[in-house]
Write a structure and sequence with these properties.
63 residues; mainly alpha; single chain
Length: 63
């Protein structure tokens, strides 16, 4: 694993760049809220899709 980038010193001489970095570090992190997913419903949907697609492929080989 490359760890050299973690130990690298950064020198910022421009006051505007320093202000932007400080503002970014001080601002609160906006966590996006994810909608809840019903896992059992998704499993059912996936299982039905697999059944539907596999039955199509089986029917196409029966000539």
């Amino acid at each position: 694993m490359a760890t050299a980038s973690f130990d690298r010193k950064i020198i910022v001489k421009d006051k505007t760049a320093v202000d932007v970095i400080v503002k970014g570090l001080e601002s609160p992190v906006m966590a996006s809220s994810y909608s809840t997913v019903d896992i059992s419903q998704e499993f059912k949907r996936g299982k039905n899709a697999l059944k539907r697609f596999s039955s199509r492929s089986k029917n196409s080989y029966q000539k």
